[in-house]
Fold this protein.
Amino acid sequence: MSDCLFCKMVSGDITPDILHSDEHVMAIRDINPQAPFHALVIPRQHIATVNDLTPQDAEIVGRMYLAARTLAQANGFAEDGYRTVMNCNRLAGQTVYHLHLHVLAGRAMHWPPG
Ligand code: AMP
Ligand code: ZN
């Protein structure tokens, strides 16, 4: 997807602050952090939204959560806790239409979410 921001990061056309990279996913620091630690886990393949997932994507979603766990552990947030969020479409506030998992940590989170 040539006009997709996160595909440009995966291809290297745009260089974000990369926190983790492997053959399945990348994790970058969010440019507009909503917590002291705010990362985005991005699959290397383009999937627009949660609605577009197929059974063939089950592994990549699992890989995204494994990367979130690794990030939380590596940055010292695993014990105290952290939040993972995937926004889907307009009412959830999705702005980038390439699947991504927010990993937020370093402060108490509110529930219900806003
Ligand atoms: P969402 O609103 O769930 O689609 O999340 C998109 C996220 O991407 C937002 O938290 C933005 O702050 C973040 N974002 C947008 N552009 C960039 C960028 N160039 N580098 C890092 N994060 C970005
Ligand atoms: Zn994309």
